[in-house]
Amino acid sequence: MTDDLKGIKGSVKTAFFLALKDIFKDKKVTCLVVLMIAFSFVNLMFFTSFNYGMTNTMQDEMINTISSHLSIEPEADDTYLQNVKSTEKKLNLISGITASSPHIDKHASITYKGKTINTKVVGLTPSKEEEVTLVPQKIKIGEFLSDRDANEIVLGKVLVKNKMPDEDDWGFGEFAKNALDVEVGENVVVTYDNGVSREYHVKGIIDAGMGPDFNAYVTTKEIEDVYNQKDEATQILVRLYDRDSADEYRLLIMQQGIRGDVKTWMDKAEFIEKITASMGIITGVMTYIGLLTVAATIAIIVYINTTHKRRLIGVLKAIGSKDITVLLMFLTEACIFSLFGIALGIVLMNLISVYFSYNPMITPIGEIYPEVQLNLVLITFRTILIAAVISGFYPAWNAAKQNIIRSIWGE
Amino acid sequence: MDDGFIRTESLKKTYLMGKVEVSALRGVDITVHEGEFVALMGPSGSGKSTMLNQVGLLDTPTSGCIYIDNENTSTMKENKRVELRLNKFGFIFQFFSLFMELSTLENVMLPMMLSGEPKKECKDRAIELLDIVELYDRQNHMPSELSGGQQQRVAIARSLMNRPKLILADEPTANLDSKASVEIIELFKRLNRETGVTLLMVTHEEELGKLADRIIWLRDGKIDVEKQFVSLETEELRVINPISA
Asked: Ramachandran region of residue A113, left (φ > 0), alpha (ψ -120 to 50) or beta?
């Protein structure tokens, strides 16, 4: 080994050795610093992972209550999809598609005891819907429709005045003002946009946390009867085995010659992306502030450390240590503090994650819990480590460049 | 021709204290031969520590030259100066300059570790030196568990780790009682005699200085010629070491 290489090895090994010795000299201080970095790590992870969790919850809720994995809608010039039964047969022949459910949407007003509320009435076949969305399972009071129901209706909770003592108003704005004071088992009158009025028995109230809460549901058979329509639909929802292959199946459906505009859940989730992107900006600002806190703390720790060790830095340099050894020593300390802090932070974040998986945050859009993604852990890990090196560099460099005599005399 | 292991020529050092220029050294010429034990003495502010720092390459002179082993250090790059400090010099300071988080053994090992030597060799050499300074049984003690004299002996062992040719000691006994001070100087003399290492020691205690082979007196940043003459006469009477200049 050449003398130069030997010298470099000696510098690196000594820097590492002194850093480790210094870290474990005062265990209480080390624990506090590590704890502080761990909390900073959790701080950086927490909001972002909640944002991920919220995005996922919103996507899941949207898929389970509004869009399913794919939806076939009429092309721009058409109002309805035609030949729905034949389309369903074609869809059922495609391997990987588990079910489909045609919807026929109409505008109507619902009246109860002189109060009227305008809404969308969705006609669907309950047995098919069960295979495609979770809407039938989202019943809060009463029951969902069955295929043979003719004069039954299910109302979204926003259309109805809340009578649950422990909950706030279900609706808001105009909806809260016009909400019907109706209960399951009572009758309402629905006036469709073609002028036909029918009386329905309220079979259930839906609480889906999203779009379905604003709708009313009757059977397809009923809508077809009211509008004298056959084999038509406003959209056909399609369920896949694997939601991630939605793009692939979109192409497959188009290749089958099925007429319509095929949209994936990702297309429909654009608004969620926008919401989470906005949240991401806020989270990003909080992250930067958190990161600045970490960086400042590490810089202060290294600075205080170099100030306390001023004389020994001088001695170390006097006995033949290179500047790089001193620099490496303090940077290694900053990195080791950070590594321990990050490790503890990962443990804490996982504990928080486990806690929230058992006690999720209940929100109007569903249950939200932080989602700790490996990618996010790696990014936060890298960010804190880089912040540690950058923020520790200046005070460490200053220490390394100190005049030997002045350092020895503690000036 | 023997030019000496250390030779300074017209060595000057000027400091700025605020806006005032202070001349700590005003053209000092000294020669120290290999294997000599020389004490630098003088009153406070005479420039003895500044002189030691210049010779030890801890600082750079304002003008003049320092030759170490016939090599002009004023033209040396910083890397080379660091290498000299690590491999040819050993330093002992007046305060107990040990790393408190390191054991006695680890403190002694430090210079050899910096040289990149394997840990086993560092440890063996450190134990050997702790034995020489009579602290073999204290190798796993922390500095805080040692007396001032013992700590200074650890610093001496550390200064010898890389088998230096020159040991520079800046008032090594300043913080020790008289018994410990004599022990340290006796240790220096023994090391000087047994290993042939050159010793340049700053002290303000004349009794200790007299234990060296030769005293170089400084006053106001210059050689104190008058005192040097008296000292030389005393030296000649004592006939301690025939190598003295």
From this structure: left
Helix residue ranges per DSSP H, chain B? 48-55, 78-87, 104-114, 119-132, 148-159, 178-195, 206-209, 225-238
Out of A14, A24, A315, name the one closest to residue B114 (CB).
A14
Are A337 and A33 within 8 A, CB to CB?
yes
- Which chain A positions have a beta carbon within 8 Å of B162's beta carbon? 320
pLDDT digits (tens, 9 = 90+) for B137-151: 999 999 999 998 899
* Count of beta carbons in the 10 Å neighbourhood of residue A187: 12
Cβ-in-10-Å burial (0-12, 13-18, 19+) of B179 comes to exposed
C-beta atoms of A408 and B158 within 8 A: no
DSSP state of B221: T
Cβ atoms of residues A188 and A112 within 8 Å: yes
- Give tens-digit pLDDT for B201-241: 998 888 888 888 899 999 999 988 766 656 555 555 444 44
Please tell me the distance in Å from A313's CA to the nearest CA on chain B: 10
| Average confidence score pLDDT of chain B | 86
Cα dihedral value A45, A47, A51, A52, nearest 10: 20
Nearest-angstrom CA–CA distance, A396 and A19: 12
Residue B60 makes CB contacts below 8 A (sequence gap 6+) with B54, B74
User: Two tokens at B217?
Assistant: 């007196």
A317 burial level (CB within 10 Å; 0-12, 13-18, 19+): buried
Measured in angstroms, the CA of B4 and the nearest CA of chain A are apart by 23
Cross-chain CB nearest to A408 (options B93, B101, B113): B93
Which among A6, A21, A317 is the nearest to B116, CB-wise?
A: A6
Among B149, B211, B210, CA closest to B179: B149
Domain annotation for chain B: domains and CATH numbers:
1-88+164-245 (3.40.50.300), 97-158 (no CATH)
A17 lies within 8 A of chain B by CB: yes
Q: Long-range contacts: B145-152, Cβ < 8 Å, 24+?
A: B146/B104, B147/B180, B148/B96, B148/B175, B148/B176, B148/B177, B148/B180, B149/B176, B149/B177, B149/B179, B149/B180, B149/B183, B149/B184, B151/B96, B151/B98, B152/B92, B152/B96, B152/B176, B152/B180, B152/B184
Its ipTM equals: 0.87
Cα–Cα distance between A202 and B220 in angstroms, integer? 109
